[in-house]
Amino acid sequence: MQLLQDLLKIMRSYSPDLNEDKIKEAYLFCKEKHEGQKRVSGEDYYTHPVEVSMILAEMRLDPDTIITAMLHDTLEDTSATYEELEAKFGKDVADLVNGVSKLTKIESQTFEGKQAENFRKLLLAMSEDIRTLLVKLADRLHNMRTLHHFADRPDKTFRISRETLDIYAPLAERIGMHQVKEELADLSFGYINPEAQDSISKRLSFLRKEGGSVIKKIISDLDGLMKAEGVNCKVTGREKTRYSIWKKMQRKNVTFEQLSDIMAFRIVVDDVGECYHALGVIHSKFPTVPGRFKDFISTPKPNGYRSIHTTIIGPESQRIEIQIRTEEMHREADLGVAAHWAYKDGQKKVDQRDLKNYRWLRELLDILEQEQRPEDFLENTKLELFQEQVFVFSPKGDLIELPNGATPVDFAYAVHSGVGDKCVGAKVNGRIAPLNTKLVNGDQVEVITSKSQNPSPAWERFVVTGKARSHIKRFIRQQQRSEYINLGQVMLKKVFQKEEYEFTEKAVAGVVKQLRVEEADDIYANIGSGHFSARDVFKAIFPAHKAEMAKVPSGDIKDYAMARRSDTDKPVPIKGLIPGMAVHFARCCHALPGDRIVGIVTTGKGVTIHTIDCETLETFADTPERWIDVAWGDGPDSPESHVGRLEITFMNKPGGLGTVSTVIGKSGGNIVNLKITNRSLDFWDILLDVYVTDTKHLNNVIAALRATPEITSVDRAKGR
């Protein structure tokens, strides 16, 4: 009962009118339901949920949250039911306990899948009541404090610590619970990289011995300075955590000895005006470190964090970081959203209309809504959570928090998924900027949209937010599936026609189970992507059929497809394919308009375009069903849409390479890539990629090069 008495003592300190009977009832229910269960340490299991309750009581949380913490494992690990909890403690508590509980039946058998499913449920519960997360964080904090009892199972301790560092510590930071975040991260660090933690601990211990009471001396000097200037305040100081020191060493790529600001000091004053008074005193007395001043009072972080940060060369000639804030700001900085749940506030739930204060939560929920594998969801969630932030502004002055390295596309998706999908350009600080521009603190970003735009696969190479990546992947996945279905159906119909059978959807549906797919569209998609061959599906439908097919099927060219070259990302019209089909250009022959071409169905890529004389085609001679008759279309195109590859030999003398470049430029070509394949005293051999309109244009470039005295030979490259 001592644990219960300790808990009640804490709660009485901030809630004089506390209903102690309800807390005692929850305690007895928890103890009864967990009867006979033991922790690895040998303690009775019920002590764990009571300790979790005490962590939350120290944050001054309301009784429902405390009771939820005490019962948080009853649904998962005991015979207790939701109905039983609702009857005894009310619907709010029952819903909270259900939100905290892990899923007991999960289809995915991988650890990542289970982890993702558990996190999905937690996110959904958080969107209804943020206290779900507070209980979960306290639960994880107590588990991390007692993880040493699993010392004989290093794999388990590493896995739990990795999950804590990747998900729970960033979540704590996102809701402003800095104190919880730091402890979770530091505890995890000890299990993930014990050697590094031990090394930093020893160096800190050495510094303490060498420096004596440096922290106390600096606190005394700062306190004296503030009092002399009439600033009523409390000055505290501490060493930074081992994990934060390690992160800074990794980020700046420096050694421990090169770090100069491993101490942080805090000045807590009475009001906002005194914050700036104290700042003026500090800056007038000590030299400041350029670029290290941040005012989060005038521009708070999205999680509500407010404080002034500055770094100075302070007393004892030490480089130190100083944070200046009020008592209220200090409490919110340590406890974040939990500070708003103090029992005296009487607030019970986060209203959905108030979710504007939790933009990050809305974005995680948006990722959750995308159709994707659990492992993809988890990875995108980590991207969203676990990165340093930059703060940028919309044209209206709204502050938006993004990860380091974020681009205008990330910004567009942060504003709204519809804005991201239709983004065609952006202005950064009033000037047109490439979509892959990395944003920096203070940038003002305006997104340019078009109704005809769709997400570009090229964006996936530079976006950094999970929300942007999940939307782009979803679009690509849906687009490719549609293309593969259309292509697969065309290919299968061609086999039916060749063998003089009537094509019917019913015939295809009849082999769905045999081919171990869910529906006929899956068969077409697998044919289109090259995972099934049309001939094998035909044989599955008509197993008695023995006829042989011709080597290369022929057919009328009726349809157009707009392919996209990976090197230009511009549309290229191709006849003989379904519109929108996934089409790629083989790098072995660099087909250009004017060349005779053929399409080959390639596993995972759709159709790959080759020139008709490409040597690679010999490898597909035994699979004629993979060949597609195609030709160049007459659609609109840019004069610099296609890459032609040239083999050039020229004299090794001053200006030789410049001459090659000049001739190509005057012929209307544009060099996009160059590779030196051989160099000698007299000659250089190079491979050159040039943007041209078609084969006629490329031939004009070749003719101009051949007419140049310094160039000894020019040919179109084949198979390189």
In words, what does this structure look like?
With 720 residues, this protein is an alpha+beta fold. A hairpin with a 3-residue loop joins β14 (597-602) and β15. α8 packs across α17 and α18 packs antiparallel against α21 (466-498).
Percent strand? 15-25%
- Low-pLDDT residue spans: 103-110, 341-357, 548-572, 636-640
Query: How far apart are the first and last residues' alpha carbons, in Å?
Result: 79 Å
- Per the CATH scheme, the topology name of the largest domain is Hypothetical protein af1432
The helix fraction, in percent, is 40-55%
CATH superfamily of the largest domain: Hypothetical protein af1432
Mean pLDDT: 79
* β-strand number: 21
Structural class: alpha+beta
Can you identify the CATH class of the largest domain?
A: Mainly Alpha
Question: Can you summarize this structure?
Answer:
By secondary structure, the chain is an alpha+beta fold.
Tag the structure with descriptive keywords.
17% strand; Hypothetical protein af1432; 5-stranded mixed sheet; alpha+beta
Topology summary:
Layout: H1 2-14, H2 20-33, H3 47-57, H4 63-71, H5 74-77, H6 82-89, H7 91-100, H8 111-128, H9 131-145, H10 154-174, H11 178-192, H12 194-211, H13 214-228, E1 233-239, H14 242-252, E2 263-269, H15 272-285, E3 294-295, E4 308-313, E5 319-326, H16 327-335, H17 359-369, H18 374-385, E6 389-393, E7 399-403, H19 408-415, H20 417-421, E8 423-428, E9 431-433, E10 445-449, H21 466-498, H22 505-509, H23 520-528, H24 534-541, E11 560-564, E12 571-575, E13 583-585, E14 597-602, E15 606-611, E16 627-629, E17 631-632, E18 642-651, H25 656-666, E19 670-679, E20 683-692, H26 695-706, E21 711-716
Parallel strand pairs: 2-5, 13-15
Antiparallel strand pairs: 1-2, 3-4, 4-5, 6-7, 8-9, 8-10, 11-12, 12-17, 14-15, 14-16, 18-20, 18-21, 19-20
